[in-house]
Amino acid sequence: MVGFKATDVPPTATVKFLGAGTAACIADLITFPLDTAKVRLQIQGERQGPVRAAANMQYRGVLGTILTMVRTEGPRSLYNGLVAGLQRQMSFASVRIGLYDSVKQFYTKGSEHAGIGSRLLAGSTTGALAVAVAQPTDVVKVRFQAQARAVGGQRYQSTVDAYKTIAREEGFRGLWKGTSPNIARNAIVNCAELVTYDLIKDALLKANLMTGSCPPFSVWVPGTW
């Protein structure tokens, strides 16, 4: 573009959208076994009484859960639901993070000076919208993580089969189970994460501790920070 150096051109909304989703997918690939262990620990003893559940605890601690799953179900069990997990990140993070700047500009009507109210609105809006879009992928991911390979007769044989089975047996609304609390949670989390980042970044820029402009998700170029 005329009048701009390569490092001065801000990333487009499309770049932010795709970049946020791609970065989240990479992070998910690395941390997915921890997420699977978390789900197994959360649902442990779900169908048992408190006394029986305590006596028959299969998983103990994060490391113990991972080792038990590897020993009884194989290493691949740690990545049960990975496809749905990547689908979730690509749709969830892209909206939650990638659209934050665009929504903030919408609330401020293009003004460069965004108040904390506009930032909170933008954070809660993209957080809630991301859940509304990505909830079916989250439901399928958790269902896959919860089913043990060692137990015969797995309910879901593939990601596509999981979507179809849930829709057929529970209705399309079954794919959006848990949406309301998830929207409330992620609206708050998004405000806490992105608005805090935004305010700290502005404070550092005003104090001349760094130069340039870096939105909540952008392409970092050496020399711009």
UniProtKB/TrEMBL annotation:
Organism encoding this protein: Rhinolophus ferrumequinum
Keyword Lipid metabolism attributed: no
Gene assigned in the entry: UCP3
Family classification: Belongs to the mitochondrial carrier (TC 2.A.29) family.
Membrane topology: Multi-pass membrane protein
GO cellular component terms given for this protein: membrane
Keywords from the UniProt entry: Membrane, Repeat, Transmembrane, Transmembrane helix, Transport
GO biological process, one term: transmembrane transport
PANTHER family: MITOCHONDRIAL DICARBOXYLATE CARRIER-RELATED (PTHR45618)
Solcar repeats: from-to residues: 11-106, 114-203
Subcellular location, record wording: Membrane
Protein's UniProt name: Uncoupling protein 2
